[in-house]
Amino acid sequence: MDALILGGTRFLGLAIANAAAARGDRVTVFHRGKTAAELPPGVEQILGDREHDLARLDGRRWDAVFDTCGFAPRIVRESVSALAGRIGHYTFVSTISVYASLAPGADESAPLARLADESVEEVTGETYGGLKALCERAAEDALPGRVLNLRAGLLIGPHDYTDRFPYWPRRIARGGDVLVPDAWSQPLQMIDARDAADWMLSAAEAGRTGPYNVSGPAQPLALGDFFERARSALNAEAQFVRVPNAFLLDRGVAPWTEMPLWTAGDQGFMAASLARSLAHGLRHRALETTIHDTLAWDRARKEPPARGASTLSVPVEGSLTHERERELLAAWSAAPGGLGRDAASGRA
User: What structural domains and CATH numbers belong to the chain?
Assistant: First the structure.
């Protein structure tokens, strides 16, 4: 298969490039050159900004396109329209956040988010889902019947520059008292970017179209299960200090970003139906494998986790610093009923 990746030098795009090259596909990556590329040998790179430089792709044909960096409907429409006569299939990487609201177990037919002003292009926490919904529509309008809208859940694994997942293997491996939200039963959905990439390639080859919720695991997972499995997988000397949601919120701890994976009660987008993607071949590697691989990558990376960086163009606060965690642990220890360590620590 001849594959074109728009983006492709970070995280999911890199996972697609690696998986495609491993399959023997001919891979071209069109990117701006702003991120150091760790692409496999043989992958062709064309530098350019998709908003201004699509002409650099003229005269070429591809079986499949994988759009990992589409956020503005106007730009997605222009990209798909420019390529429409020279491609067979288009995969648009959307998001599980595309839904207006998502009750646990909801499938791809759930209502989508809408923007009051559809001309807006600035990506914020409020516009992100609505913009992705418009991008899906733009792609389908430009290439009817040949677009797969991949509504990705939380992507995890090596090369996760957001630090949402790497924070936990790194922190749990360090051991000691680990501050965690006392939300043991909170649903948790996430998928190794490498598994998402494998499925995307096979789905494109099969010509699958329409929306797919793509996350994991196949069987329900809770936040507490993840913590316990991570500690066991890493054989870590860690004691979980379980702190109530209200305590964290009262002290300004930001769910999801500063305290990764914690939703503070908003559970629908962590419990979407995956039935359609599972029925069409989605498979997941063991969570423990992802934990180990992520920690190995995290320890080998040359730069520390970026703080105050952006995630999918949306500003984030960054995960807990060591100092911030120590402050919160001290405050909880001094609070009435504090020192709520988990049973495995051997302390009350």
Answer: 2-156+190-214 (3.40.50.720), 167-188+218-266+286-345 (no CATH)
